[in-house]
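Action item from last meeting closed. Structure (230 res):
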């Protein structure tokens, strides 16, 4: 049975406003990619969080591209949740990228996008090299966040399946790195952790949930593991 946790405290939620200051630093300084290991054209697909689009992940994707990776957005507008059409388009997108590069694709998912990334890897492990989740609600209590009410309002037909969620806690059969921050004001940080295993790793960074796609520590964690292949 999953542990029952509460959403992050109000002080953490209010602290998410610091993400805009971090974005300003990104505009001035970038994400410090010059000090990081480089890639060789390996494909990386980046999925946005709930209520966000490819615009939000552009800093991370641009930085990965500067490091030598072929980075892609999900190209589906605003992420308001999963449905059959969106899933089919996402699978087609993943398969097209894999075919174009003739090698498995690394998946990076911010928040809800990380949930999608893990399930893509679970369904198509031969298409995926590894998965990175950024502040994603993948463990413990799926309602331990500050956006559940908004999600239910935008998805009135969605009925939470807590049993299915518990089954999804087990990581997919590819290397999985969960990147999290204890300062997360959106998702309880304990819910963002992978269970210990031979192919799982948890990496703590400083900063906010909203600012994860333009956090230099996030880029460094991803780049280092992409370079070593796990």
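Sequence:
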């Amino acid at each position: 049975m999953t542990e029952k946790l509460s959403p992050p405290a109000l002080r953490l939620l209010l602290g998410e406003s610091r993400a805009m200051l971090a974005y300003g630093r990104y505009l001035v300084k970038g994400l410090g990619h010059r000090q990081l290991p480089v890639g060789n054209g390996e494909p990386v697909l980046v999925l946005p969080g709930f209520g966000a689009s490819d615009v939000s992940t552009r800093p991370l994707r641009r930085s990965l591209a500067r490091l030598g990776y072929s980075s892609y957005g999900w190209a589906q507008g605003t992420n308001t949740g999963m449905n059959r059409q969106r899933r089919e388009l996402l699978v087609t997108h993943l398969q097209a990228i894999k075919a174009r590069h003739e090698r498995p694709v690394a998946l990076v998912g911010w928040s809800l996008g990380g949930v999608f990334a893990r399930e893509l890897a679970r369904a198509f492990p031969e298409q995926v090299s590894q998965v990175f989740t950024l502040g994603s609600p993948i463990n413990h209590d799926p309602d331990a966040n500050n956006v559940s009410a908004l999600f239910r309002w935008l998805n009135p037909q969605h009925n939470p399946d807590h049993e299915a969620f518990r089954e999804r806690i087990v990581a997919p059969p590819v290397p999985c790195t969960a990147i999290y921050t204890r300062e997360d004001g959106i998702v309880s940080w304990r819910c963002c952790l992978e269970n210990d295993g031979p192919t799982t790793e948890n990496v703590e960074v400083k900063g906010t949930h909203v600012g994860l796609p333009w956090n230099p520590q996030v880029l460094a964690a991803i780049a280092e593991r992409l370079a070593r292949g796990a």
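Note appended to the action item: The mean pLDDT is 91.
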